[in-house]
Amino acid sequence: xxxxxxxxxxxxxxxxxxxxxxxxxxxxxxxxxxxxxxxxxxxxxxxxxxxxxxxxxxxxxxxxxxxxxxxxxxxxxxxxxxxxxxxxxxxxxxxxxxxxxxxxxxxxxxxxxxxxxxxxxxxxxxxxxxxxxxxxxxxxxxxxxxxxxxxxxxxxxxxxxxxxxxxxxxxxxxxxxxxxxxxxxxxxxxxxxxxxxxxxxxxxxxxxxxxxxxxxxxxxxxxxxxxxxxxxxxxxxxxxxxxxxxxxxxxxxxxxxxxxxxxxxxxxxxxxxxxxxxxxxxxxxxxxxxxxxxxxxxxxxxxxxxxxxxxxxxxxxxxxxxxxxxxxxxxxxxxxxxxxxxxxxxxxxx
Length: 350
Description:
By secondary structure, the protein is α+β, with helices and mostly antiparallel strands. It has 2 domains: about 1-215, Hypothetical protein, domain 2 (Endonuclease III, domain 1), CATH 1.10.340.30; about 225-350, Nucleoside Triphosphate Pyrophosphohydrolase (Alpha-Beta Complex), CATH 3.90.79. Helix content is about 40%, strand content about 15%. The chain has 15 helices and 9 strands. Strands 1, 5, 6, 7 and 8 form a 5-stranded mixed β-sheet that branches. The protein has a two-stranded antiparallel sheet with strand order 2-9. Helix 2 (about 25-35) crosses helix 3 (about 40-55), helix 2 runs antiparallel to helix 8 and helix 8 packs across helix 11. The chain is elongated, with a radius of gyration of 24 Å. It starts with a helix and ends in a 6-residue tail after the last helix.
């Protein structure tokens, strides 16, 4: 009770003014929680505002074409979230009559909704006493109670969930859950936490034992995979180019890109010209090839780094699938492609 009271008092005095804190609408809470997974509030807030303006209800989101949703999501990353968002909106709108499940168990059964998101929606919208555990909560609890169990281990996940549930204010789980996440984000920060003014500094075991910098403990990630991308930027006559849609279960499924040749390492021009995939793409030898960036753009994802070069191909051939250069920005693309287009396209095409 002491923990809960101190936390709530801190929260009511320090909480940020955020739009999803002014509603109990499960659609908007769900939207905010999906967007803020692995995303800072400062980055996610503009996207939340864009989505709620474009799709005020779950029915509006369900009716929207997936490509339109992906385009609006562009730049937020982790695009599987957007695809799951759209699929769940269709399910809620068409199968559940627009009503989200009103309990943790039902919410957790939705596509793209895990323990954390289900707990957040259930507690905030329906006052169900289920504790949330996200990165902020792991950090707060591991420090105050000096817990060294790795947060990304099976044992750690169970231990921290049980502790959060034990500490939870069952009379007002909504405020408690939002408070502990906010406290981790603003006060018990990963770097330079505000220990001198912390309401828990008399009971924080990590502070007492000088272990703040050592907690939480996390198991080492798998080794980062290096991949080498060669994008072929066709500059065709009549100001046309070629985009292709990524398919399969890999990164950026459903987004568009320039024709891609992935290789084991960086290629020199002659190596690219002799590459079988490159030769299959061009029926004629009447073209000019120009390397746009000698130094590859390194695009870092969670488990892989993409070393990317853009090769410009000038030719008078026009492929059937060619699209006007002015239309390129209508397509949802990875931020890697978006950054290139911002540099490459004339200002009146953007």
